[in-house]
What we know:
The structure is a homodimer. Chain A has ten helices and no strands. The first copy, chain A, has helices at 8-23, 30-37, 41-47, 57-72, 79-90, 92-96, 98-110, 112-135, 140-163, 170-186. Chain A is globular. The relative contact order of chain A is 0.11. The model of chain A has no long low-confidence stretch (mean pLDDT 93).
Amino acid sequence: MAQKTPNARExxxxxxxxxxxxxGYAGTTARDIAARAGLTERTFFRYFADKPEVLFxxxxxxxxxxxxxxxxxxxxxxxxxxxxxxxxAAGAFFDANRAKVAARQNLVAAHPELRARELMxxxxxxxxxxxxxxxxxxxxxxxxxxxxxxxSIWQVALEQWTADPRSRxxxxxxxxxxxxxxxxxxxxxx
Amino acid sequence: MAQKTPNARExxxxxxxxxxxxxGYAGTTARDIAARAGLTERTFFRYFADKPEVLFxxxxxxxxxxxxxxxxxxxxxxxxxxxxxxxxAAGAFFDANRAKVAARQNLVAAHPELRARELMxxxxxxxxxxxxxxxxxxxxxxxxxxxxxxxSIWQVALEQWTADPRSRxxxxxxxxxxxxxxxxxxxxxx
Lengths: 190, 190
Protein backbone atom coordinates (compact mmCIF):
# COMPACT_ATOMS: atom_id res chain seq x y z
CA MET A 1 0.00 0.00 0.00
CA ALA A 2 2.65 2.49 1.01
CA GLN A 3 5.13 1.50 -1.66
CA LYS A 4 6.56 4.34 -3.78
CA THR A 5 5.83 4.54 -7.48
CA PRO A 6 9.04 5.54 -9.30
CA ASN A 7 8.79 9.02 -10.82
CA ALA A 8 5.10 9.18 -10.01
CA ARG A 9 5.05 12.98 -9.78
CA GLU A 10 6.80 13.38 -13.11
CA UNK A 11 4.44 10.86 -14.74
CA UNK A 12 1.38 12.67 -13.41
CA UNK A 13 2.84 16.00 -14.51
CA UNK A 14 3.53 14.84 -18.06
CA UNK A 15 0.06 13.29 -18.34
CA UNK A 16 -1.56 16.44 -16.94
CA UNK A 17 0.22 18.77 -19.38
CA UNK A 18 -0.80 16.55 -22.32
CA UNK A 19 -4.45 16.46 -21.25
CA UNK A 20 -4.63 20.16 -20.34
CA UNK A 21 -3.31 20.98 -23.83
CA UNK A 22 -5.78 18.61 -25.52
CA UNK A 23 -9.06 19.02 -23.65
CA GLY A 24 -8.37 22.07 -21.52
CA TYR A 25 -7.57 22.57 -17.85
CA ALA A 26 -11.18 22.73 -16.63
CA GLY A 27 -12.21 19.69 -18.67
CA THR A 28 -9.57 17.40 -17.16
CA THR A 29 -10.05 15.63 -13.81
CA ALA A 30 -7.50 14.05 -11.49
CA ARG A 31 -9.00 10.70 -12.51
CA ASP A 32 -8.28 11.48 -16.19
CA ILE A 33 -4.70 12.40 -15.34
CA ALA A 34 -4.19 9.22 -13.34
CA ALA A 35 -5.61 7.06 -16.15
CA ARG A 36 -3.36 8.73 -18.69
CA ALA A 37 -0.33 8.21 -16.43
CA GLY A 38 -1.24 4.54 -15.94
CA LEU A 39 -1.70 5.10 -12.21
CA THR A 40 -4.68 5.34 -9.88
CA GLU A 41 -6.60 8.39 -8.72
CA ARG A 42 -5.81 7.30 -5.17
CA THR A 43 -2.11 7.48 -5.94
CA PHE A 44 -2.62 10.95 -7.44
CA PHE A 45 -4.06 12.21 -4.17
CA ARG A 46 -1.27 10.56 -2.20
CA TYR A 47 1.11 12.94 -3.96
CA PHE A 48 -1.03 16.04 -4.51
CA ALA A 49 -3.61 17.75 -2.30
CA ASP A 50 -5.70 18.73 -5.34
CA LYS A 51 -5.65 18.81 -9.14
CA PRO A 52 -3.77 22.10 -9.62
CA GLU A 53 -0.96 20.99 -7.31
CA VAL A 54 0.32 18.74 -10.11
CA LEU A 55 1.55 22.03 -11.67
CA PHE A 56 3.08 23.40 -8.46
CA UNK A 57 4.95 20.60 -6.69
CA UNK A 58 8.29 21.68 -8.16
CA UNK A 59 8.03 25.07 -6.43
CA UNK A 60 9.04 23.52 -3.11
CA UNK A 61 12.14 21.88 -4.57
CA UNK A 62 13.15 25.03 -6.44
CA UNK A 63 12.72 27.01 -3.23
CA UNK A 64 15.11 24.71 -1.35
CA UNK A 65 17.70 25.04 -4.11
CA UNK A 66 17.34 28.83 -4.18
CA UNK A 67 17.74 29.18 -0.41
CA UNK A 68 20.85 26.97 -0.51
CA UNK A 69 22.20 29.15 -3.32
CA UNK A 70 21.67 32.39 -1.38
CA UNK A 71 23.37 30.95 1.69
CA UNK A 72 26.33 29.75 -0.42
CA UNK A 73 26.73 32.97 -2.46
CA UNK A 74 30.04 34.83 -1.96
CA UNK A 75 30.05 37.14 1.07
CA UNK A 76 30.06 40.80 0.12
CA UNK A 77 27.75 40.40 -2.87
CA UNK A 78 24.98 42.94 -2.59
CA UNK A 79 21.76 41.25 -1.43
CA UNK A 80 19.86 41.12 -4.72
CA UNK A 81 22.99 39.98 -6.56
CA UNK A 82 23.24 37.04 -4.15
CA UNK A 83 19.57 36.24 -4.77
CA UNK A 84 20.06 36.41 -8.54
CA UNK A 85 23.10 34.09 -8.43
CA UNK A 86 20.85 31.56 -6.70
CA UNK A 87 18.06 32.09 -9.25
CA UNK A 88 20.45 31.51 -12.14
CA ALA A 89 21.61 28.18 -10.71
CA ALA A 90 18.07 26.99 -9.96
CA GLY A 91 16.92 28.10 -13.41
CA ALA A 92 19.13 25.55 -15.16
CA PHE A 93 16.12 23.28 -14.69
CA PHE A 94 14.02 25.60 -16.87
CA ASP A 95 16.51 25.59 -19.74
CA ALA A 96 16.74 21.79 -19.64
CA ASN A 97 12.93 21.42 -19.75
CA ARG A 98 11.94 24.34 -21.95
CA ALA A 99 8.84 22.90 -23.67
CA LYS A 100 7.31 21.54 -20.48
CA VAL A 101 8.04 24.65 -18.40
CA ALA A 102 6.76 27.02 -21.11
CA ALA A 103 3.54 24.99 -21.47
CA ARG A 104 3.06 25.20 -17.70
CA GLN A 105 3.70 28.96 -17.61
CA ASN A 106 1.21 29.59 -20.40
CA LEU A 107 -1.41 27.51 -18.57
CA VAL A 108 -0.86 29.40 -15.32
CA ALA A 109 -1.06 32.74 -17.12
CA ALA A 110 -4.39 31.77 -18.69
CA HIS A 111 -6.19 30.72 -15.47
CA PRO A 112 -6.80 33.21 -12.63
CA GLU A 113 -7.11 30.33 -10.12
CA LEU A 114 -3.63 29.13 -11.10
CA ARG A 115 -2.20 32.64 -11.13
CA ALA A 116 -3.43 33.10 -7.56
CA ARG A 117 -1.70 29.90 -6.49
CA GLU A 118 1.49 30.95 -8.26
CA LEU A 119 1.41 34.22 -6.32
CA MET A 120 0.96 32.33 -3.05
CA UNK A 121 3.97 30.14 -3.89
CA UNK A 122 5.85 33.37 -4.57
CA UNK A 123 4.98 34.54 -1.06
CA UNK A 124 6.37 31.33 0.35
CA UNK A 125 9.58 31.89 -1.64
CA UNK A 126 9.76 35.49 -0.35
CA UNK A 127 9.52 34.28 3.26
CA UNK A 128 12.28 31.70 2.68
CA UNK A 129 14.48 34.31 0.97
CA UNK A 130 13.99 36.72 3.87
CA UNK A 131 15.26 34.08 6.30
CA UNK A 132 18.25 33.32 4.05
CA UNK A 133 19.18 37.01 3.76
CA UNK A 134 18.88 37.47 7.53
CA UNK A 135 21.46 34.69 7.89
CA UNK A 136 23.74 36.77 5.66
CA UNK A 137 23.48 39.58 8.21
CA UNK A 138 20.86 41.73 6.52
CA UNK A 139 18.47 43.47 8.97
CA UNK A 140 14.84 42.36 8.87
CA UNK A 141 12.98 45.10 6.98
CA UNK A 142 15.69 45.33 4.31
CA UNK A 143 15.74 41.54 3.94
CA UNK A 144 11.95 41.56 3.56
CA UNK A 145 12.05 44.27 0.87
CA UNK A 146 14.92 42.59 -1.00
CA UNK A 147 13.05 39.27 -0.97
CA UNK A 148 9.88 40.76 -2.40
CA UNK A 149 11.89 42.46 -5.13
CA UNK A 150 13.72 39.17 -5.71
CA UNK A 151 10.46 37.31 -6.28
CA SER A 152 9.46 40.03 -8.77
CA ILE A 153 12.73 39.44 -10.65
CA TRP A 154 12.09 35.68 -10.61
CA GLN A 155 8.59 36.12 -12.02
CA VAL A 156 9.40 38.77 -14.62
CA ALA A 157 12.43 36.74 -15.80
CA LEU A 158 10.24 33.66 -16.15
CA GLU A 159 7.66 35.61 -18.17
CA GLN A 160 10.35 36.99 -20.47
CA TRP A 161 12.01 33.57 -20.78
CA THR A 162 8.69 31.95 -21.73
CA ALA A 163 7.99 34.55 -24.41
CA ASP A 164 11.54 34.89 -25.76
CA PRO A 165 11.55 34.19 -29.54
CA ARG A 166 15.33 33.72 -29.33
CA SER A 167 15.09 31.10 -26.55
CA ARG A 168 17.89 32.64 -24.52
CA UNK A 169 18.68 31.00 -21.19
CA UNK A 170 16.97 31.83 -17.91
CA UNK A 171 20.20 33.39 -16.57
CA UNK A 172 20.09 35.98 -19.31
CA UNK A 173 16.59 37.02 -18.31
CA UNK A 174 17.45 37.16 -14.59
CA UNK A 175 20.40 39.46 -15.28
CA UNK A 176 18.28 41.61 -17.61
CA UNK A 177 15.51 41.96 -15.01
CA UNK A 178 18.04 42.91 -12.31
CA UNK A 179 19.50 45.54 -14.64
CA UNK A 180 16.01 46.91 -15.31
CA UNK A 181 15.33 47.12 -11.59
CA UNK A 182 18.61 48.99 -11.06
CA UNK A 183 17.60 51.42 -13.81
CA UNK A 184 14.18 51.96 -12.24
CA UNK A 185 15.63 52.59 -8.78
CA UNK A 186 18.69 54.69 -9.51
CA UNK A 187 18.51 55.49 -13.22
CA UNK A 188 17.19 58.61 -14.91
CA UNK A 189 13.55 59.21 -15.87
CA UNK A 190 14.04 57.01 -18.91
CA MET B 1 -35.31 49.36 -7.42
CA ALA B 2 -32.16 50.78 -8.96
CA GLN B 3 -31.92 53.71 -6.54
CA LYS B 4 -28.55 54.24 -4.89
CA THR B 5 -28.16 53.81 -1.16
CA PRO B 6 -25.93 56.62 0.14
CA ASN B 7 -22.58 55.35 1.39
CA ALA B 8 -23.75 51.74 1.05
CA ARG B 9 -20.25 50.38 0.51
CA GLU B 10 -18.89 52.19 3.55
CA UNK B 11 -21.82 50.99 5.68
CA UNK B 12 -21.30 47.39 4.60
CA UNK B 13 -17.57 47.70 5.20
CA UNK B 14 -17.98 49.07 8.72
CA UNK B 15 -20.53 46.38 9.57
CA UNK B 16 -18.29 43.66 8.12
CA UNK B 17 -15.22 44.74 10.11
CA UNK B 18 -17.28 44.83 13.32
CA UNK B 19 -18.70 41.35 12.74
CA UNK B 20 -15.41 39.82 11.54
CA UNK B 21 -13.77 41.10 14.75
CA UNK B 22 -16.56 39.76 16.93
CA UNK B 23 -17.51 36.38 15.47
CA GLY B 24 -14.70 35.79 13.00
CA TYR B 25 -14.44 36.03 9.25
CA ALA B 26 -15.63 32.49 8.49
CA GLY B 27 -18.56 32.75 10.90
CA THR B 28 -20.01 35.86 9.26
CA THR B 29 -22.25 35.73 6.17
CA ALA B 30 -23.18 38.44 3.69
CA ARG B 31 -26.68 38.29 5.20
CA ASP B 32 -25.25 39.01 8.67
CA ILE B 33 -23.31 41.97 7.29
CA ALA B 34 -26.36 43.36 5.54
CA ALA B 35 -28.50 43.03 8.67
CA ARG B 36 -25.88 44.81 10.77
CA ALA B 37 -25.65 47.60 8.18
CA GLY B 38 -29.45 47.97 8.15
CA LEU B 39 -29.55 47.00 4.47
CA THR B 40 -30.60 43.91 2.52
CA GLU B 41 -28.53 40.96 1.35
CA ARG B 42 -29.73 41.77 -2.15
CA THR B 43 -28.24 45.24 -1.89
CA PHE B 44 -24.97 43.70 -0.64
CA PHE B 45 -24.69 41.64 -3.79
CA ARG B 46 -25.56 44.62 -5.95
CA TYR B 47 -22.32 46.21 -4.73
CA PHE B 48 -20.06 43.17 -4.20
CA ALA B 49 -19.60 39.97 -6.20
CA ASP B 50 -18.99 37.97 -3.02
CA LYS B 51 -18.43 38.33 0.74
CA PRO B 52 -14.65 38.99 0.67
CA GLU B 53 -15.06 41.81 -1.87
CA VAL B 54 -16.40 44.02 0.94
CA LEU B 55 -12.71 44.19 2.03
CA PHE B 56 -11.33 44.87 -1.46
CA UNK B 57 -13.55 47.41 -3.19
CA UNK B 58 -11.27 50.29 -2.26
CA UNK B 59 -8.41 48.74 -4.25
CA UNK B 60 -9.95 49.91 -7.52
CA UNK B 61 -10.27 53.51 -6.31
CA UNK B 62 -6.77 53.55 -4.88
CA UNK B 63 -5.46 52.18 -8.17
CA UNK B 64 -7.06 55.03 -10.14
CA UNK B 65 -5.55 57.59 -7.76
CA UNK B 66 -2.13 55.97 -7.99
CA UNK B 67 -2.14 55.88 -11.80
CA UNK B 68 -3.18 59.55 -11.89
CA UNK B 69 -0.34 60.31 -9.48
CA UNK B 70 2.27 58.53 -11.63
CA UNK B 71 1.10 60.36 -14.73
CA UNK B 72 1.22 63.71 -12.93
CA UNK B 73 4.63 63.16 -11.26
CA UNK B 74 7.38 65.59 -12.34
CA UNK B 75 9.16 64.54 -15.54
CA UNK B 76 12.71 63.38 -14.96
CA UNK B 77 11.96 61.63 -11.67
CA UNK B 78 13.38 58.13 -11.80
CA UNK B 79 10.59 55.59 -12.39
CA UNK B 80 10.27 54.16 -8.89
CA UNK B 81 10.48 57.63 -7.37
CA UNK B 82 7.49 58.67 -9.52
CA UNK B 83 5.62 55.57 -8.37
CA UNK B 84 6.41 56.30 -4.72
CA UNK B 85 5.24 59.93 -5.01
CA UNK B 86 1.91 58.53 -6.20
CA UNK B 87 1.81 55.96 -3.37
CA UNK B 88 2.43 58.66 -0.78
CA ALA B 89 -0.48 60.75 -2.03
CA ALA B 90 -2.85 57.79 -2.21
CA GLY B 91 -1.75 56.65 1.23
CA ALA B 92 -3.19 59.74 2.92
CA PHE B 93 -6.36 57.66 3.04
CA PHE B 94 -4.60 55.10 5.26
CA ASP B 95 -3.42 57.70 7.77
CA ALA B 96 -6.91 59.21 7.97
CA ASN B 97 -8.49 55.78 8.60
CA ARG B 98 -5.82 54.04 10.65
CA ALA B 99 -7.96 51.80 12.87
CA LYS B 100 -10.16 50.54 10.04
CA VAL B 101 -7.29 49.96 7.61
CA ALA B 102 -5.14 48.21 10.23
CA ALA B 103 -8.05 45.92 11.18
CA ARG B 104 -8.49 45.06 7.52
CA GLN B 105 -4.78 44.38 7.00
CA ASN B 106 -4.65 42.06 10.02
CA LEU B 107 -7.69 40.16 8.73
CA VAL B 108 -6.15 39.73 5.28
CA ALA B 109 -2.86 38.56 6.79
CA ALA B 110 -4.67 35.93 8.85
CA HIS B 111 -6.66 34.31 6.00
CA PRO B 112 -4.89 32.63 3.03
CA GLU B 113 -8.00 33.12 0.87
CA LEU B 114 -7.86 36.86 1.50
CA ARG B 115 -4.10 37.00 1.03
CA ALA B 116 -4.53 35.37 -2.39
CA ARG B 117 -7.09 37.98 -3.38
CA GLU B 118 -4.82 40.77 -2.11
CA LEU B 119 -2.04 39.41 -4.32
CA MET B 120 -4.38 39.34 -7.33
CA UNK B 121 -5.33 42.98 -6.68
CA UNK B 122 -1.60 43.69 -6.55
CA UNK B 123 -1.24 42.16 -10.01
CA UNK B 124 -3.97 44.44 -11.29
CA UNK B 125 -2.14 47.43 -9.78
CA UNK B 126 1.12 46.26 -11.40
CA UNK B 127 -0.55 46.12 -14.82
CA UNK B 128 -1.97 49.63 -14.38
CA UNK B 129 1.40 50.95 -13.21
CA UNK B 130 3.12 49.40 -16.23
CA UNK B 131 0.75 51.28 -18.55
CA UNK B 132 1.32 54.55 -16.64
CA UNK B 133 5.12 54.19 -16.80
CA UNK B 134 4.97 53.39 -20.52
CA UNK B 135 3.17 56.73 -20.97
CA UNK B 136 6.16 58.36 -19.23
CA UNK B 137 8.37 56.91 -21.98
CA UNK B 138 9.73 53.87 -20.19
CA UNK B 139 10.25 50.83 -22.46
CA UNK B 140 8.02 47.81 -21.79
CA UNK B 141 10.22 45.32 -19.92
CA UNK B 142 11.68 48.03 -17.66
CA UNK B 143 8.19 49.40 -16.96
CA UNK B 144 7.03 45.88 -16.10
CA UNK B 145 9.94 45.28 -13.70
CA UNK B 146 9.55 48.70 -12.07
CA UNK B 147 5.82 48.08 -11.56
CA UNK B 148 6.35 44.74 -9.86
CA UNK B 149 8.96 46.29 -7.59
CA UNK B 150 6.56 49.18 -6.95
CA UNK B 151 3.82 46.82 -5.81
CA SER B 152 6.35 45.18 -3.46
CA ILE B 153 7.11 48.60 -1.98
CA TRP B 154 3.39 49.28 -1.59
CA GLN B 155 2.82 45.99 0.21
CA VAL B 156 5.91 46.09 2.44
CA ALA B 157 5.16 49.72 3.40
CA LEU B 158 1.59 48.75 4.31
CA GLU B 159 2.83 45.86 6.47
CA GLN B 160 5.30 48.11 8.27
CA TRP B 161 2.69 50.85 8.66
CA THR B 162 0.19 48.39 10.16
CA ALA B 163 2.74 47.09 12.67
CA ASP B 164 4.41 50.42 13.52
CA PRO B 165 4.24 51.00 17.31
CA ARG B 166 5.01 54.68 16.66
CA SER B 167 2.13 55.09 14.19
CA ARG B 168 4.22 56.99 11.67
CA UNK B 169 2.53 58.01 8.43
CA UNK B 170 2.33 55.83 5.34
CA UNK B 171 4.68 58.20 3.46
CA UNK B 172 7.41 57.46 5.96
CA UNK B 173 7.10 53.73 5.32
CA UNK B 174 7.04 54.16 1.53
CA UNK B 175 10.25 56.20 1.62
CA UNK B 176 11.86 53.70 4.00
CA UNK B 177 10.96 50.74 1.76
CA UNK B 178 12.33 52.55 -1.31
CA UNK B 179 15.57 53.22 0.56
CA UNK B 180 15.79 49.55 1.54
CA UNK B 181 15.28 48.50 -2.06
CA UNK B 182 18.04 50.87 -3.17
CA UNK B 183 20.34 49.37 -0.56
CA UNK B 184 19.51 45.83 -1.71
CA UNK B 185 20.14 46.66 -5.37
CA UNK B 186 23.22 48.87 -5.23
CA UNK B 187 24.39 48.74 -1.60
CA UNK B 188 27.12 46.60 -0.07
CA UNK B 189 26.60 43.07 1.27
CA UNK B 190 25.11 44.52 4.43
